[in-house]
Amino acid sequence: VTIEVRFFASLADRAGCAVETVEIDEGSTAEALWARLVERHPELGGIGYRPLLACDAAWSRWDAPLRGVREVAFLPPVSGGRK
Amino acid sequence: MTARLVREPIRPEETTAAVRSDGDGAVATFVGVVRDRARGRRVLRLEYHAHEPMAVREIERIEEEVRTRFEVSAVRIVHRIGTLAIGEVSVAIAVASPHRAAAFDGCRWAIERLKERVPIWKKEVYEDGEAWIEGS
Asked: Which chain B residues touch A49 with a CB distance below 8 Å?
């Protein structure tokens, strides 16, 4: 199945793109998808944290199979900011 | 105006007007503005990026939580995205209540949750480079 992958903020800089399409086996997990993406964009491998994950614009788990999902988004932690 | 994410300049007085009603004795507002220094460097401008549908939904959730947790009559949160110059408003929050304590408390609570949960990131652009500000 075809998945639209979206990268945000510094992850888009590291991937060199904000959006790309990837073919995966039905029922693959986001973990497997991420491993494919790190192979394709080695700079994603050095971030030192696990991104936030959203499937079709809803927060999602890394180990859940991607069934019926069209878009997978990888997001850095949000800004935080000093009080 | 009901948009939670906007690309045009935010006018905080409109956010305040949107929440006030005749039963309210207090409107607390928070206005976040772009400052000219960060991490010891001079900042030229900021760029805010968002996962837009998720950011809108998280902002709406925070508004709903403020309404249920505090004795307030109305809440409005507006965040700007895109490129912002020094001194421009990045976020405006207005909370209306019959009395001031709930308005202050709800407004403070809203900005803290927004910083924790809403998928919006800023890039600081300096004279000699730029950096994404993410996580903590």
From this structure: 135
Q: How far apart are CA B31 and CA B65, in angstroms?
A: 20
B79, B59 contact by CB (below 8 A): yes
Would the CB atoms of B121 and A57 count as touching at under 8 Å? Answer: no
Instruction: Give me the interface pTM, i.e. the ipTM.
Output: 0.90
pLDDT value of position B1:
47
pLDDT of residue A83: 67
Alpha carbon distance A65, A2 (integer Å): 14
Cβ contact (<8 Å) for A79 and B57? no
Residues 13-72 of chain A whose Cβ lies under 8 A from any Cβ of chain B: 13, 49, 52, 54, 57-59
**CA angle at residue A82 from A77 to B5, to 5 degrees?**
60
Which burial class, exposed, middle or buried, applies to A57 when counting CB atoms under 10 A from its CB (0-12, 13-18, 19+)? middle
Q: DSSP code of B98?
A: S
